[in-house]
Amino acid sequence: MKTKVAVMCVLFTMFGLAVVAKGSPFPEGYTPEENVPGWVTSFPYQRNVLLDFSVDPRCAPGSGIPGADYEGTDDPYLLDTDFVEIINGDAQWFENDPFGGDRTGLIGNVWESGPPVFGILNLHLDNWDRQEPYFKNIWVEWVSKGDYTDLITIVPSSGTFVDYGFGPTETYADGFVKRTDWATIKPNPLYEEIQINLRADPGSISVIDSIHVATECVVPEPGTIMLIAGSGLFGLMGVLRRKLRK
To answer: 48: burial class by Cβ within 10 Å (0-12, 13-18, 19+)?
Structure first.
């Protein structure tokens, strides 16, 4: 949680710390403004965090996420309390594709022997302390492979989901899939955590190649509130249908 503007800090690449540099736009068709009802801001957005797992991202709060590409206008003020952890189990970081492919930088679990391997990746992103009438819009794009990585769970510190939906997907030749999900929460929470299940059953895998998150804290126009209210039920029904698939 942040309650006031701090002195802007830019962390450079030395020692593998988070950086504010590369720029991370979403490809055409996968932008939040094209897919999220009532999305207000344009690139680089308020928070814009890309994890490509070029280094192991696990860290304690205090210096940003190792290897993260921060581009959002609010990121320099908020990144110091971001972190990634593995909860309810463990995970491996792979410098190179364990399947012999061309991908580099993966995190997850590959079953080798014995019982299933458990773990959940938890990405924590902090927000400004802004309550009513502010809404929080969240857009998540991730590339993964495995039976349990097709769903994300967004866990806000507080608030109510007033809308939720799924964006476009793309399947690659090596079996990895790019997926997109979004949510609108009212009022703006102090933070949100984005979780991906890394469980690997016997003979299976669950690995993530990248996660890209954009968020905004905004006061929507009255017409947008009506649009969200009308679509929210259908979005939540979609979540239920997708979960029942498993």
So the answer is: buried
Which amino acid, 170? E
pLDDT digits (tens, 9 = 90+) for 218-238: 998 765 544 434 444 444 433
Q: Answer for the pair 72, 44: CB distance below 8 angstroms, yes or no.
A: yes
Q: How much is the pLDDT for 164?
A: 95
Give the DSSP letter of residue 128.
B
C-beta atoms surrounding 75 within 10 Å: 24
Say if residue 243's pLDDT is above 90. no
166-200 burial: b if 16+ Cβ within 10 Å, else e: ebeeeeeeeebbbbbbbbbbbbbbbbbbbbbbbbb
**What confidence tier does 99 reach under pLDDT thresholds 50, 70, 90?**
confident
Q: Work out the angle at residue 50's Cα, subtended by the Cα atoms of residues 44 and 54, and round it to the nearest 5 degrees.
A: 145
Structure tokens at 208: 């993530």
**Please, which pLDDT band fits residue 24 given cuts at 50, 70 and 90?**
confident
Write the DSSP symbol of residue 148. T
Q: What residues does each domain of the chain span?
A: 14-244
| 44 upstream amide cis, omega within 30 of 0 | yes
- The answer to whether the CB of 180 falls within 8 A of the CB of 166 is yes
Beta bridge partners of 181: 140, 166
* pLDDT greater than 60 at residue 122: yes
The dihedral region occupied by 32, where left means phi > 0, alpha psi between -120 and 50, and beta the remainder, is alpha
